[in-house]
Amino acid sequence: MRVEIYKDYQEISDFASSAIIDQVRQKPDSVICVASGDTPKLAYQKTVEKAKTQQISFSEVHFIGFDEWAGISPENHGSCSLFLREIIFSPLGISEDHIHLFDAMASDLDKECKIMDDFIYKIGKIDLMVVGIGMNGHVGFNEPGTSPTSKSHVVELEETTKSVGQKYFKESQVLTKGITLGLQHLLDAKQVILMANGIHKADIIRKTFQNEISVEVPASIIRNHKDSLVLLDEAASSLTPKDLNL
Ligand code: GLP
Fold it and tell me: Which of 97, 180, 197, 239 is the most buried (most CB within 10 A)?
């Protein structure tokens, strides 16, 4: 694991977008798993800009959506699917057969998990995962207590996740469950970039790095990944003791 601390959100977004561009430059048919959320939004927008100015084609890239709110329509503005389509897939012109998202409206969500796991198995490894961290330490919807060997699964969301999640929706939503890739996918990915910015993430970042690696803080598992990069801004890293030498 490598940790880089930058001044602010602009800088971590700039760094992350360059890493995505480099990945695709080196391997045009990369498999990239993307989380949604406020954190990676600017990095994705910068990726789109850089792809255009540097003429990097994403036409062979396969994109996987990390997670989704169960029962929320992909047309809902707060869904992870619509966020990813609007911010990154459509601007990059990604074709439908290269977009792999959970159908969170499906009657059989376990089948959706199997479809995703089978696809990842068939395609081989995920080359790059770009993830954020929830206020309770979750990655994707891998909530506290999730097994490090988990693959895709359906999860009961914690109260924190349900209440923080309201920020994505225009009107208040009943959020109960999520569907997500598992922590084993994260550990198996060739490279993982975890981003966090803002003072509101400072305490969970401290818990992620100061305490023992624990299922209670799922993001802490990233410390076991040999090619993981953690991008923090100064605010998010401000409560983490300096003697940890992040
Ligand atoms: C959300 C998503 C995660 C995301 C995290 C942080 O609930 N399920 O994929 O990384 O929580 O979100 P944000 O970047 O908006 O803080």
Answer: 180
Other CB atoms within 10 Å distance of the CB of residue 76: 20
- The whole-angstrom separation of Cα 232 and Cα 31 is 24
Cα of 93 vs centre of ligand 1, distance in Å, is 24
The answer to pTM > 0.90 is yes
Residue nearest to atom 6 of ligand 1 (CA): 134
Cα distances (angstroms) measured from residue 118 to each of 125, 163, 228, 246: 12, 32, 24, 36
With the most atoms of ligand 1 within 8 angstroms of its CB, the residue from 13, 39, 143, 161 to mutate is 39
